[in-house]
Specification:
Blueprint: H1 2-17, H2 25-41, H3 44-55, H4 62-82, H5 86-94, H6 105-120, H7 122-128, E1 133-136, E2 146-151, E3 156-161, E4 173-175, H8 176-180, H9 186-189
Antiparallel strand pairs: 1-2, 1-4, 2-3
Amino acid sequence: MNSKFTFLAIVLFSISSFGQYKYDSGHGFKFITKSENYLKTGNLDKAKKYIKKARKSDFQGGNPEATAKSRINLIEAQILIRQKLYDEALTLLDTTHGASFGVNCPERDSLKIAALFSKYGKEKVKASFKNIQVIKRPDIDQFDTDYCAFNKELNYNFCFYTDYEILNDEKTKINFQELAKDQIFYKLLE
C-alpha cells in the first residue's frame, strides 16, 4: 500500500512539473549566448530557436533570472525589429522593467528608439521628440525611477530609466531634453 502511494505521488509530481521548465540555468545562459551570436550573423531562424529554448529554462529566481529574462527580451525585441514587427517589439520592451534587478535599461531604451526609427523613419522620430514634456511615472511596482514622455505625433508613450531624480515633488513635468540629454538613447535623437 505504501509503495503504491509513493509511486502515485511520483507520477503525479512528474505530470504536474512536466512542461514548466525543460532546461537548467546553465543551458539557458548558453542558449542566450547562441541566440545573440546567431542574431549578430543575421540568422534569425536559429536566433529564434535558441531564444525559445532559453525561455524554457529555469534560471532559479532572483537577480540571475531577472538578468536572463531581460537579455531574452532584448534579443527577442531585436529579432522582432528585424522582422518588421515594430509594435510587438515595442510592447515587449515596454514590459521589460527593473534596472535594480539586472535589466539593461540603457539598451532597452535605445532599442525602443531603434524600433521607432524603423517604424516611422529617423527624421520623423527625431522631430517628434522636440518640445515634449516628461512626467515621472508613479509606478509603485517599480524600484527604479522611470519617466514617460507621451509623443502625440507617434501616439507612443516613451518610458525610460534615468538616475536623475526630480527632487521637487511638486514639479511633475520637465523638459524631455533636459532630463534625457545624458542618456545613451538620447544620442540617437541628436
